[in-house]
Amino acid sequence: MKFHGTMVGFERPDGRPLDGYLAAPDDQAGAPAVLVLQEWWGLNDQIRGVADRLASAGYFALVPDLFRGKTTVKEEEANHLMNSLDFAEVTSQDVAGALQYLGTKSDRIASMGYCMGGALTLLALCHHPVLSAGVVWYGFPPLEYVEAAKIRAPIISHWAIQDEFFPIETANELEVRLRDAGVDVQFHRYLAFHGFSNETAVGGGRISRTQFDPVWAAKAWDRTFTFLGRAMWKWGGRVDECR
Q: pTM for this structure?
């Protein structure tokens, strides 16, 4: 698989180094940026492909390497890697460092995250007012950590009705909390399983746990590009046709 981005290094606010995968658009003048937060599999080829897709649509896209070079395809190991993270530190340091780096590329930055990264995106929106928009794919932290009153950016989110990891009932509760706090939110629900936008999700022997759905993935991406086009482009809401 050929990728068009490159690995870059930057610093966290505490001075510690961090690497990430940066994909850049062909036309960089005035381009917005997207911070892409990984699933629990690590900075793998699939999430690099997400960054490349965003770059092909005109965005800078940076995926910070939250697991410091570690990747896996095994659920048990992925769960171990995720649980080894201090989410508060990731939000205050890794995410902050990535946002500072992207700030050298653009003054308009969105955050997009999947599963674990979706939860981190919600936390980032609470703690980093520099963010102009958020895209959440089937992931949330414990709801008591979502300080909805602090969120000023619009959010689009995609949820799987048959998700065993992030129950749709909790997503429904999250929507109520965000709307009650006055957050501009779009919640979309799909008759799908967890990971329905990840083309490498093939069920792992249990199709009810995780499963790619190309139809719903295409619909969700279409909605995402429309949302980003309206939220991120200065000249009146460009809607990218590149999918």
A: 0.94
